[in-house]
Design goal:
By secondary structure, the chain is of the alpha/beta class. Helices cover 34% and strands 19% of the residues. The protein is built from twelve helices and 15 strands.
Length: 372
């Protein structure tokens, strides 16, 4: 007893100092020294591992949780379906292995998570993965046999934009970027795909507020423009580009169709995004409930990711993944390449300030979102 009590108070102190770390669905958050989940007995379940206690990632993690639970709720009445337990943490990079082991000890028959790239990398380094495990981000590590990757790679959307332009018969490209880190990642991904498909890069233009950098752009034949920029910067740039030039971008430029007047500045831009945001009448989209509280466009995408993650882990649990794919998901057309689930995003274009899906008129291309 003398040895047990100090350990108990040490763990209690750690727990309280973490601001009474959040319990989700009645299960404990893992810290550097994870606590046992109270009086809960081990039982078969699906474990959802998310950084719900992180100041940075809490909002994103909660959006995934809502989508995952929305999909689970539709199937909970079916016989033989496992319940979902949600495990939360502060820092996936430090806590994820302990959290994963806690879920397994609790009886998890499948695991979904972690969410962050650093957390996925940490878990991927562990080769002891005893149950089907689906991460919510993509890394290039060689995975264990039962470890699979699924996520929203912004760079992969840039690659898809390059492929779309090439499919339209365009051979030259202008790339417009900003100093933002994400913009640079989009730029490099587009250029890599463009060069790899035989395209010629005419110029790279970095926009830092000086609109005169666009003064020399003319209606060049056989030329595409790629905007490696977010919605705010794209609205400033678009009016200074010739109307006849085909312009391509990623989902970064789309924040919703609520503000038609603001979106007028994006007219003519072609981009890719999820059916969840673009195709409300899509059969795969219609059956799932929308969030109870309105979410930002970014968090709507994470909500959709949660829905498809639940569907994929069900297939992995049933060992039916190869029979069921490709999957018509709310996040895109999903197929499996090795251990990475890849998705083809829906095509869209801004028309009179409103983003309109083009995927209903065009067959999905062969390139995919999620390519490592």
């Amino acid at each position: 007893m003398q040895r047990v009590l100090p350990l108990y108070f040490k763990r209690l102190s750690t727990w309280l100092s973490a601001l009474l770390a959040l319990y989700v669905s009645g299960f404990a958050c893992a810290t550097a020294e994870p606590l046992a989940p109270g009086n809960e007995k081990p039982a078969p379940h699906i474990a959802l591992l998310l950084p719900l206690n992180s100041a940075i990632f809490k909002s994103a993690a909660d959006a995934v949780r809502q989508g995952f639970q929305a999909a689970a709720d539709l199937e909970m009445q079916l016989p033989g379906k496992l319940p979902v337990r949600v495990y939360s943490c502060f820092d996936e990079n430090k806590d994820i292995v302990a959290l994963y082991r806690l879920a397994i000890a609790d009886g998890a028959r499948a695991v979904v998570g972690p969410l962050t790239r650093s957390g996925v990398g940490t878990l991927a380094a562990e080769q002891n993965i005893p149950v089907p495990t689906l991460t919510l981000n993509v890394v290039e590590d060689i995975p264990a046999r039962q470890l699979y990757f699924f996520g929203m790679a912004a760079e992969a959307e840039a690659r898809q934009a390059a492929q779309l332009a090439r499919q339209q018969g365009l051979h030259q490209a202008l790339v417009i970027t900003t100093r933002a880190q994400l913009a640079k990642r989009l730029q490099f991904a587009f250029e890599e795909e463009w060069h790899g498909s035989g395209g010629t890069l005419l110029n790279e233009i970095e926009f830092n507020g000086d609109l005169t950098v666009f003064a020399d752009i003319t209606d060049l034949p056989d030329t595409a423009v790629f905007l490696a920029a977010d919605a705010e910067k794209s609205r400033l740039i678009r009016p200074y580009l010739p109307n006849k030039l085909p312009i391509y971008a990623t989902s970064q430029i789309f924040v919703g169709n609520d503000d038609t007047l603001t979106n007028y500045d994006l007219n003519g831009i072609r981009f890719v995004d999820m059916p969840w945001l673009l195709q409300a009448d899509h059969p795969a989209v219609m059956i799932y409930p929308r969030p109870v509280q309105p979410l930002s466009a970014d968090n709507e995408r994470l909500y959709a990711l949660g829905i498809d993650a639940f569907r994929l882990i069900q297939l992995l649990l049933a060992d039916k993944i190869y029979d069921a794919l490709p999957l018509d998901g709310v996040s895109g057309h999903i197929k499996l390449n090795g251990h990475t689930f890849q998705r083809t995003a829906a095509q869209a274009v801004f028309v009179q300030g409103h983003a309109q899906s083009r995927s209903t008129q065009q067959a999905p291309p062969e390139h995919t979102i999620g390519k490592p």
